[in-house]
Design brief:
This protein has about 100 residues and is of the alpha+beta class. It has four helices and four strands; from the N terminus they run E-H-H-E-E-H-H-E. About 35% of the residues lie in helices and about 30% in strands.
């Protein structure tokens, strides 16, 4: 079953963050992930506004974890972590009405 990774953060060092997206995208594709939405101007309804909100779709929770642990991704992950704050990443399963 597909899972969605919803991530929000504040970018504290835009120059350092700049190479992250162009280098992470091919790795996301390698793992069968799809960028559903990405917005630097998302409208905050509840909570605190963040600089960036992204929704990714992965084929399964296992594949999402494989992406996160991929050795090729680690250098870019370090850049993301070093250039952002107030990070929240939440993995949610695809909606299945029978589970509710």
């Amino acid at each position: 079953m597909a899972v969605y990774l919803v991530t929000s953060c504040d970018i504290t060092d835009p120059e350092r963050y700049a190479p992250y997206v162009p280098n992470a995208l091919p790795l996301l594709e390698k793992h069968g992930a799809e960028v559903i939405a990405a917005d630097k101007n998302a409208i905050t309804i509840d909570g605190e506004k963040r600089d960036l909100t992204v929704i990714l779709k992965f084929p399964s929770p296992e594949v999402a974890k494989e992406f996160s642990e991929d050795p090729e991704y680690q250098q870019w992950k370090k850049i993301r972590l070093a250039s952002t704050t107030n990070r929240a990443s939440i993995m949610v399963s695809e909606f299945n009405p029978s589970k509710f």
